[in-house]
Amino acid sequence: MQAVALHPEVIVARSVKWQTSCTVLHHGDETFVVDSVIYPSELELLPGLLAQAGWELSGLLVTHGDWDHVLARLAFPEAALGVAETTAARLRAEPGRAARQLRQADEDDYVQRPRPLSLGQVQALPVPGKLGLGDSELELLPADGHTQDGMAVWSPAHRILCCGDYLSPVEIPWLSETGSRDAYLATLERLRPWVEEARWVVPGHGTPLEAQRALAILREDVAYLQALPDPDAPLPPARRTPAQRKIHAENLTRVRTR
Ligand SMILES: [Zn+2]
């Protein structure tokens, strides 16, 4: 796991698996953890990270309901989990799915955990909406298209955008089972003004990005999505790995069957 401070009040930890990012936002006397790292040895380090900074956890937030983003409860078993209303509906509709998918991934990776995942009390947050962070307010923005649910989190005190599975430097736009190209494109346009304002954009997978780099990725992603369902849609040059071609193939079937 790598951890970097983007600001005296913001730490981003990045998992070895899929470069999944976990953002700690602190301001005043409140602290939220957005999304999660994955491996047990990484999750174990999170409480110490907060303690070292002298920050007390207010709650957990997730950008969307995919299993790799909802694991912070394993590190903070008492914490409330704040999610977009769309994500709350999704989690209600598929109870236990994240835990099952985690078990499957752990089997594939030969990973053992001290306890199974339980999401506990899930708190549905209105999105668009605001959430107090000390004397500041996080802005919760709708972010669907990768999946049918989700939100991006903008912290005006730090000018940091946690955008979930959009604008990744390592993953092409992924239309998952419930994803939609039109919704994905609309989310990118919705995020654009926030990206322009941002000091840092923290994607769900990959390193934090400065605004200019994030905007370049946004342009590449729009071009890619607009070219679908052309099988020769241009994959962004830095993201042409076999794994990304597999996602591309999945995207093609998704766009063709809609
Ligand atoms: Zn993800």
Quick recap of the structure?
The protein is α/β, with parallel strands linked by helices and 258 residues long. It has seven helices and twelve strands. The strands form two sheets. Strands 1-2-3-4-5-6-7 form a seven-stranded mixed beta sheet. Strands 8-9-10-11-12 form a five-stranded mixed beta sheet, covered by helices on one side.
Task: Write structural notes for this entry.
- With 258 residues, the protein is α/β, with parallel strands linked by helices.
- 33% of the residues lie in helices and 24% in strands.
- The chain contains 7 helices and 12 strands.
- The strands form 2 sheets. Strands 1-2-3-4-5-6-7 form a 7-stranded mixed sheet. A 5-stranded mixed sheet has the order 8-9-10-11-12, with helices on one face.
- Strand 8 and strand 9 form a beta hairpin.
- The longest helix has 17 residues.
- The protein is globular, with a radius of gyration of 17 Å.
- The chain starts with a strand and ends with a helix.
- The chain binds zinc ion.
- Zinc ion binds next to loops.
